[in-house]
């Protein structure tokens, strides 16, 4: 029978003995637990008096007994017993993989807490420690429950609780990993990586340790977008007779609310998707096309069929549409054909195609001709107008479903409203889901009768008339018009101004584009209350407009004549944001700073694209110049090249800006293998830099010229540029970072020219400098380069250590140039040890990075081809080398390296005349250029001996 004891010290004794689970606690132990390690006069007598009082308080003398020089209690803490029993059930469920049972049992256990453990006893010595242990156990139970929530598909809901818990427990690794997983499953990979980077930093700063292996593994899986991180939804009841195969990994938009209504349409759509062809869901904005399609795609995925979901709303360029649809197959001469092969038999969902109908129609037509087993599902406000198109018009919800949706979305105190009034409200917005949700959101401000009256007055004309597509569109606009008119002037101004952001925004960003920054905070609160924007708990608060609301608000912005001013303000915000991040983090030296930049990437991208061809073009160029380092760290060379191509000629750019833009453009083109175009740009930059007599610009040109000449195979020319740059940088104390970059580049040149020991010396110098500066990108690159030189010297264990440390930084930065290079290092070490199978595994992994990023051929292709030759896989080796020679200019460094493998291939094919000719030509090319990279010259010498025999 539960007992209550009011006096603190007696209650402390009761709890202490109850925690002992019936075992006796010696007097001296009890005294120390209750009064601390102080000298007490007659502690045994004090305990006797206290025990006597406790017996009287619990009215059960037999429960508290004297035993073994101490006291024992036969009573139990009922809430603790219940929590332990529930926790045991939870652990059984965890082992059985029963997520529903885990969640239920963990919830039962957690329900026994009513606040901080032993909160009223924390001043008692033992209770402080016991309370902390119980609180720690409580967190563990919360983590298990949230893990189960994630497994059951509740990533959005779990994410909000995980965010709050992680803030309270900044070093709890499993908790932070679950938070990262929840963010990833709701489409926020950058935020997920940012959280793990923050955890890594805290562990290092506060405990001096690295993350646990499980945390590091999670970080790597997030970087590689491991499909097993995603889960398919629970098996639906609506699909009858569906196969019981495991669901295929698929990344679909994460639903934040329940799916209401359209059950018949859902069943019908799932059945239609079972057959190959084209299905287009048409209807006005807010008619529920996207949600219905996403739900159907989830159900199809549970049958084991592959699903690819492509969101077209953010895309404006036709080339971007092709890249988004073809995905990893976007490279090569015929990306459509490659995509058709990978998609045959799959389901391709193209969401929000109305603004890119023509290119989508052309791409879909081509895919369907080449992939007979493909099903394409398109959502659009208008059809694609293809002969094979199965058009599914999206009408309004039926009356029952509309009322159900309103009831689910309205304020809690409005859920018992008059059904007739609810029906009137739904009819006034044409029973379209978005209109209903907007109206339901207003019940936080208005009662249902008030809302019903205002709707009748405002939208009387919209209830009548035809229900064709144009009328449905008018109905949604009317719903938005009506919501808009309920706003004050300040809220309307903020709404149209923040619509300029394509990827959501923070309070500070909104204030920078607003007409009056003082209006922003209260206006955002009002807009959120009316469901016109959503609020996310990410490093504070982040706001997003629904796409349809954003389109509407952008139209209002245009009507107000404020579009150009708002875009200018957004561009100023973007420049200030990137500048601040760079200045606060020593020119983007840390992984956190890079993640912070790319968390705003949708806005930055839109700002850059919108600046082209306008008076803002020169400001757009300045933003591109600021983004150069983040682009390099992430290996986004193609993206960088596109923006420099579009903006470098901006009118109004200063001469230093022009030199820097030309140099940066040349460098990214070099990384893309376009060496001659890069050299041309650098020649122009060099001429302009001479006129300015600016050391910084001169160093920029010299550095990039050295890199270009290395890649072109002009190794002797590269040496003169790099030595000149190193000398100039060494003479300028302000250029220490540039000196490190020149030193690293010289190390690479020495390696390529057969001087690996000197290369190691150079790399050691720049690595030491980068450690001082805390330059994670420099360490990622420098350690990888050092590993390559150590392989050339046969120092294989040291090479692996350097590659592994490089990986540590590369993963934090999501540096997709360095990560595959480290796989090449491991492949080279495995080959040197005679493990050809391991070498192939590592090199294939490196090639997969290039395929995934559409970055063209790399040195990994060459090395993999050589390993395949050793294994007798000559056809695949030949294909790889053909790809290299198709992209690499003659006499460039990749071309020179590939010639050794080409000679080996000819010898393996028993084409000895060709092998001998290639050997002679390659020897001459190496001698002429100065190319002597040990791993390729050694291969050539091996072939020379073999052919001589």
Write the layout of secondary structure elements.
Elements: H1 8-19, E1 25-26, H2 27-35, H3 43-58, E2 64-67, E3 70-73, H4 78-96, H5 99-110, H6 125-151, H7 155-168, H8 173-185, H9 189-207, H10 213-223, H11 263-273, E4 277-282, H12 289-301, E5 307-311, H13 318-326, H14 335-343, E6 347-351, H15 357-370, E7 375-380, E8 389-393, H16 399-409, H17 419-428, H18 433-441, H19 448-463, H20 469-485, H21 489-498, H22 507-513, H23 520-529, E9 533-536, E10 542-545, H24 547-559, H25 563-584, H26 591-598, H27 601-611, H28 617-626, H29 628-634, H30 637-647, H31 655-671, H32 675-692, H33 695-712, H34 715-730, H35 736-752, H36 756-773, H37 776-792, H38 796-813, H39 818-832, H40 836-853, H41 859-870, H42 874-887, H43 893-908, H44 912-929, H45 934-948
């Amino acid at each position: 029978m539960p007992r209550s004891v009011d006096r603190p010290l007696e209650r402390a004794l009761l709890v202490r003995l109850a925690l002992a689970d019936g075992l006796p606690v010696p007097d001296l132990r009890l005294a120390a637990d209750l009064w601390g390690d102080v000298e007490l006069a007659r502690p045994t007598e004090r305990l006797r008096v206290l025990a006597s009082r406790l017996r009287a308080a619990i009215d059960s003398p037999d429960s508290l007994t004297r035993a073994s020089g101490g006291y024992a209690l036969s009573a139990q803490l009922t809430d603790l017993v219940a929590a332990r029993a529930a926790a045991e059930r939870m652990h059984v469920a965890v082992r059985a993989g029963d997520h529903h049972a885990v969640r239920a049992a963990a919830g039962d256990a957690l329900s026994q807490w009513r606040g901080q453990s032993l909160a009223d006893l924390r001043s008692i010595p033992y209770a402080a420690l016991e309370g902390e242990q119980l609180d720690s156990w409580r967190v563990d139970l919360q983590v298990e429950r949230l893990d189960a929530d994630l497994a059951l598909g509740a990533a959005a809901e779990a994410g909000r609780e995980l965010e709050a818990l992680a803030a309270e427990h900044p070093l709890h690794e499993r908790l932070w990993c679950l938070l990262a997983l929840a963010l990833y499953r709701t489409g926020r990979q950058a935020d997920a990586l940012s959280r793990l980077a923050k955890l890594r930093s805290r562990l290092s700063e506060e405990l001096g340790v690295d993350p646990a292996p499980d945390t590091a593994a999670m970080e790597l899986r997030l970087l590689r977008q491991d499909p097993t991180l995603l889960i398919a939804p629970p098996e639906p009841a609506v699909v009858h007779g569906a196969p019981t195969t495991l669901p295929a990994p698929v990344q679909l938009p994460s639903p934040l609310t329940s799916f209401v209504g359209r059950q018949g349409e859902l069943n019908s759509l799932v059945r239609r998707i079972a057959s190959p062809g084209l299905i287009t869901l048409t209807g006005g904005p807010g008619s529920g096309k996207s949600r219905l399609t996403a739900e159907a795609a989830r159900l199809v995925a549970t049958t084991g069929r592959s699903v690819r979901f492509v969101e077209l709303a953010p895309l404006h360029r036709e080339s971007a549409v092709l890249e988004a649809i073809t995905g990893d197959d976007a490279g090569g001469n015929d990306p459509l054909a490659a995509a058709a092969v990978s998609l045959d038999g799959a389901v391709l969902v193209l969401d929000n195609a109305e603004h890119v109908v023509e290119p989508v129609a052309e791409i879909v037509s081509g895919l369907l001709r080449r992939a007979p087993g493909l099903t394409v599902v398109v959502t659009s406000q208008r059809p694609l107008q293809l002969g094979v198109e199965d058009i599914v018009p999206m009408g309004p919800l039926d009356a029952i479903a509309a009322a159900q949706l309103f009831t689910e979305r309205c304020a809690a105190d409005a859920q018992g409203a008059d059904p007739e009034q609810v029906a009137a409200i739904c009819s006034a917005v044409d029973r379209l889901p978005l209109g209903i949700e907007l109206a339901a959101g207003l019940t936080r401000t208005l009662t249902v009768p008030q809302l019903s009256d205002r709707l009748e007055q405002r939208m009387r004309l919209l209830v009548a008339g035809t229900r064709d597509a144009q009328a449905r569109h008018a109905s949604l606009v009317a719903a938005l018009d009506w919501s808009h008119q309920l706003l004050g002037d300040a809220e309307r101004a903020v709404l149209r101004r923040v619509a300029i952001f394509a990827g959501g925004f923070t309070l500070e960003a909104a204030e920078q584009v607003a007409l009056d920054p003082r209006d922003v905070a209260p206006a955002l609160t009002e807009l959120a209350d009316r469901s016109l924007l959503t609020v996310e708990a990410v490093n504070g608060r982040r706001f997003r407009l629904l796409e349809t609301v954003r389109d509407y608000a952008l139209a209002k912005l245009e009507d107000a004549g404020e579009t150009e001013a708002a875009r200018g303000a957004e561009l100023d915000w973007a420049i200030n944001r990137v500048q601040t991040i760079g200045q606060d983090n020593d020119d983007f030296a840390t992984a956190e700073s890079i993640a912070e930049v790319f968390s705003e990437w949708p806005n930055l991208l839109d700002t850059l694209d919108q600046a082209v061809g306008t008076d803002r073009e020169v400001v757009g160029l300045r933003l591109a110049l600021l983004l150069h380092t983040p682009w390099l760290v992430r290996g986004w060379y193609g993206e960088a090249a596109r923006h420099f191509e579009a903006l470098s000629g901006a009118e109004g750019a200063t001469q230093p800006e022009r030199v820097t833009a030309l140099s940066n453009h040349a460098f990214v083109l070099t990384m893309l293998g376009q060496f001659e175009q890069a050299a041309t740009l650098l020649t122009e930059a060099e001429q302009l830099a001479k006129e300015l007599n600016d050391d910084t610009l001169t160093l920029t040109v010299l550095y990039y010229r050295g890199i270009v000449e290395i890649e072109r195979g002009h190794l002797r020319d590269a040496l003169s540029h790099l030595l000149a740059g190193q000398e100039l940088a060494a003479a300028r104390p302000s250029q220490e970072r540039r000196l490190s970059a020149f030193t690293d580049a010289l190390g690479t040149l020495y390696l390529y020219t057969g001087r690996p020991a000197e290369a190691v010396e150079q790399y050691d110098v720049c690595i030491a400098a980068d450690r001082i500066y805390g330059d994670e990108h420099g360490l990622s690159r420098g350690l990888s380069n050092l590993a390559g030189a150590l392989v050339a010297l046969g120092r294989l264990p040291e090479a692996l250590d350097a590659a592994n440390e490089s990986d540590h930084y590369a993963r934090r930065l999501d540096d997709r140039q360095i990560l595959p290079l480290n796989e090449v290092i491991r492949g080279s070490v495995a080959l040197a040890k005679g493990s050809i199978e391991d070498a192939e595994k590592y090199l294939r992994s490196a090639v997969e990075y290039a395929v995934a990023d559409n970055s063209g051929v790399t040195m990994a292709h060459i090395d993999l081809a050589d390993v395949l030759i050793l294994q007798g896989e000559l056809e695949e080796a030949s294909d790889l080398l053909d790809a290299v020679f198709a992209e690499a200019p003659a006499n460039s460094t990749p071309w020179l390296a590939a010639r050794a493998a080409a000679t080996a291939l000819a010898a393996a094919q028993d084409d000895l005349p060709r092998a001998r000719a290639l050997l002679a030509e390659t020897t001459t090319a190496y001698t002429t250029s100065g190319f002597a990279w040990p791993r390729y010259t050694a291969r050539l010498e091996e072939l020379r001996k073999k052919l001589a025999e």
